[in-house]
## 1
Amino acid sequence: MLTKTLKSLDLALSKKQLRQFEKLLELYLEWNSKINLSAIKDAKETIIKHFYDSLLITQLDALNSKLKLTVADLGTGGGFPLLPLAIVYPDNNFLGVDSVQKKITVVKTIAKELDLNNLKTSMERVETLGQKQKHREKFDIVLTRAFAKWHTLLELALPLVKIKGKLIAYQGPQILAELEQSEKIIELLGGKIQKISHFELPENMGERIFIEIEKIKNTPKQYPREIGIPKKKPLS
Ligand code: SAH
């Protein structure tokens, strides 16, 4: 089922990449039974809701580039979409960020076993990362999946995106109503909505909407605010 599902995305994967996906499935299920990484426990759901869903972004072409893109996955948790994308795009450089040590340890361990040398991790709060010279406005692409509520997510993610780069957020259909009300906040943070795309997961396992926001201006220095504030007092 794994190979068939991956093939349905038309990715032209090599034997090595298919083996990496097999290993990822095996390791992820094993780790998830030991420490609770996600409520999705069985193989079929993991393949569709984690692998296939993470990989839907390949259909947007945003990560296909001749240049080596720097890509951050904020709140990567057990490594989604980070790990599947690092397998599919060996020429891009990925950074997975999460504030929870045990999750970062699992992601690191799995990445090592899969021989992924294009992936780094950072156990840090995104609020801190966004104010560091080394990372602020340095990423070509910033990704989020199930990371935070919309206005919190915007404040945490947009400061990390470089000018002309983009934030691509994995969202559910309810985002469409919220989006209209957030245009001012997106503008304040230096972004502009570029594209919205809809997909269906196989076997009626849900809908996925991608929101692509281009960075057109620098984000004002005061964002992101201090740890916890973007969540406690979201911009409005
Ligand atoms: N992206 C994964 C996990 C989503 S759960 C997936 O789609 O399966 C959200 C994750 O974001 C959690 O692991 C949590 O620890 C992390 N997180 C939430 N707020 C954060 C912050 N401000 N800084 C760093 N990590 C954060």
## 2
Amino acid sequence: MNESTPLLLRALNKEKLSTPPIWFMRQAGRYMPEYRKVRSKFKNFMDMCKDPDVCCELAMQPINAFSLDAAILFSDILTIPDAFGLGVEFIENKGPVFKSPIKSKDDIHNLIGFNPENLSYVYQAVANIKRALPENIPLIGFCGSPWTLAAYSIEGHSSKDFKNTINFITKNTEASHLLLSKLTDACFLYLRKQVQAGADVIQIFDSWANILDAQQLNEFSFNYIRPLITALKNDPVTSNTPVILFARNPKCNSKSILQTSADCISLYWSMNDFDHSLAIGKTALQGNLNPEILLESKDIIKKETYKILDKFKDFPGYIFNLGHGLTPDICPDKVKYLTEIVREY
Ligand code: 1CP
């Protein structure tokens, strides 16, 4: 890759760069006043996600505010369960709530087939964002991991520990595997459509990897992420599209996460025992800064950011990001300051 190739793609190609590319998980969202202004026009969050022009405007907001090195599709991971007819709603201060969550084996057997065309509003948003972006800024498409989508679909809402889901998969293991394979097929078709519409990179969010023990993590999560990535690598449409995997604080050793064959591992902020030496030349790395640091003073932000940059300065293919998403309580000025000090380092 040459000097004119976007920094994000060079890092994903495992090149050592003097300045890392910068983008942030949840870079579009409630912490930005310009987001809140658009959001106030919609009663339902999902209605906003179904408007491709609004999604384009929202995805461009952080690019315009902070000149980041990548845009991410504005949408949500729960579009897939919604397309399976589970009725996803977002309730103020409560988060997602499903009208018809999965309650039994029969619900899984009777699930309607996934039709990727039902999510054409997402691919239209991808195309619009791609058109709005300068040519040198790549667009990241995304989906939730099959496990994380299954957890919301069974629990029916968010939860700290997803106890009902853990009970369900323990009691209904075979049917749970059927659900996970249906979700894996849906994720593949969905991501393929996003790439056809213009996504340059894909990120898979396994946001609830942390609630599984090591054995369950392999059985219910990585066992589906691995074939999903393999299917993407074997399809002519997606074979050249780099895949980033974010797993929230997974209870596994570095080897098993590397065995997913993701092109890049997005490190949660507390994943400090991840063995970088095993990743050299195999995968790029991303993230690792605790987002809560952004609630601190500029001095502390600088000190903690430099610790992360020192840690990855010799790693071939590091992408600067947080160890999880930006939260609504973070001040946009601090986000701007963070991008400046990374580029000055
Ligand atoms: O009322 C509002 O304004 C809704 C807030 C919001 C936003 C801005 C939600 C609801 N989703 C989003 C956008 C979103 N979600 C994006 C695009 C924005 C960007 O990154 O710039 C992305 C990539 C997501 C992905 C997402 N949604 C994840 C994975 C990332 C992560 O943080 O781990 C998850 C778990 C969700 C579910 C979700 N969506 C929204 C909420 C409140 C939740 C629940 C979170 C929980 O269970 O605690």
## 3
Amino acid sequence: MQTWIPYWLPGETAHASAVDLLFIGLLVSSALVLLLLFALLFRFAIHYRASNADADRDHRIRKSWHWEVSWTAATLVAFLALFVWGAQLYLNLQAPPADALPVYVVAQQWMWKVQHPGGQREINELHVPLGPTMRLLMSSQDVIHSFFIPAFRIKHDVVPGTTQSIWFRPRKPGVFHLFCAEYCGTDHSRMTGRIVVMEQPAFEQWLARQDVTGTLAAEGGRLYRSLGCGGCHGAGSTVRAPALDGLYGRPVPLSDGTVEIADERFIRDAILKPRDKIAAGYQPLMPSYQGKISEDELIRITAYIKSLAGEPGPPQ
Ligand code: CUA
């Protein structure tokens, strides 16, 4: 698995060539500027050397506004174009296709914990099927880590306190390196793993072979009950709290007049920082669960709330 350029691994995802093209674009434009700079440097150094009596040294200070303005404008336009190009690619990688399959990743010193919606768990390994788009929902249990698969042209910081999302579609089966690309403590360099891309039938078999206690949503449901969430959010409760049936993916009007979509990030914030975003028409009564539940548990509860998406929602 080598290309003709040493150290240049082929990109193995659908978006990899777009990233490569941007990288080459940056490299070429920087190289052109560097080349021009050095060419002028050498030309002037040689032409105006002390021993060259032929050099015209009159008009030492002669400013050309034409050169000044066009050079500044040209670089501005060139680098703005590069910025727009890169930003487009970046934003594209932030917005997953609607049919992407979710996989949950929790980073902690010093390992990657992966959970599939079916409840299958892995450590420092991620098995994915060839074909569908995968969407990773990543959170950190402690410090900032960075999820980096060079062959997939994917690198994304995993910041504690938020859910980060990134997506990719593998192009061929194989085993690929996973690295942590943010210094996160003593064993940062060992925080590595493998991404295993399998053909769909092999992947199904792999899923079936794993020990599973229940789907993430089912485990989340157990947690929901043991934490007593239903006491307020349940149908017959005396405390008036927003119903969670049919919540996921819906727009939620907030008390400050804004409207937010109830996605993974919204649900996470609502559990950890309930006072920050109050649903319109409700009192800020919910206690924060910050520090009381782990990232793993958050993933399960979120999966449970997601699974209620198909339920009939409250009257609008
Ligand atoms: Cu985790 Cu470096």
## 4
Amino acid sequence: MRPIEGIFDSRDYPDLLIGLKDPDDAAVWRLDAERGLVVTTDFFTPVVDDPYDYGSIAAANSLSDVYAMGGQPFLALNVAALPVELPIEVNAEILRGGAEKAREAGVVIAGGHTIKDKEPKYGLVVIGFVHPEKMLTKGGLRPGDALVLTKPLGFGVTTTALKQEKAAAEDVAEVVEWMKQLNRKAGALAVEFDLRGGTDVTGFSLLGHAAEVAAASDVGLHFSAEKIPFVSCARKYAGMGTFPGGAADNRMYYGPQVRLAAGIDEEMEMLLFDPQTSGGLLLGVPPEKLAAFLRRARQLKQPAWTVGEAVPGEGIDVLGS
Ligand code: CO
Ligand code: CO
């Protein structure tokens, strides 16, 4: 359900390039021929116990939607709901984690708003610039494009194991490191190689976001199951079934658009529908650019896995080995 659909008519907002008609990672407002403003917000409840890490992950996640548009963020505001019962130092650590992550991204946090709430919620409003003709959109993939993913999967199943007190400390540390990583370098690579198609992998899972990309780009997407990267503990927690509720929701909602090869077991299927917090970028890289793209990614120490390709057609195919 889209409760505000119909209230705004896109014809009244010719400079709103992205937002009303084809929702994407962030809204884009054209300032002039060479500059568009990218605007996005995201916030969520804690995914990890450490307040500093939580703030850092929430900020990296909020910033990601600007990178996922091929944009460069520069300004942010805090959005926070914090419990008065928590020690003041804990709340301060959440905000400090977010601020230091923003600073690492070259983004200044210039204020924001905090209210009291029982369960903490934190994130950012982020503003960036993008060239209006060089945006990275969900509709920008073409048949033949290689699908490149820049972080492994398995964050949801691991952080839910943590919530259920079933996760080993070293496993949590591994996913926290990934979730804290900015998509900045991956976004810069997309801009450097003049890519047009891409998004970030977050709550709707790899296959959910892929289904959106396939529909928006009017292509089919083929994934090779054995090429999809996972954090080292993903299979273990998948076997324990510690998926967040969103994984089953994603499967129910996007499942009809996905064809799975016979060899894909249910654990693997659920991992592909596992919601990610601060996941990587999923990029469409034209085949003639792929080798140079991967070479440059290695140079920049930016992980990049080729996990499939766009093809004529529709929907998602997950191919076995
Ligand atoms: Co996004
Ligand atoms: Co978002």
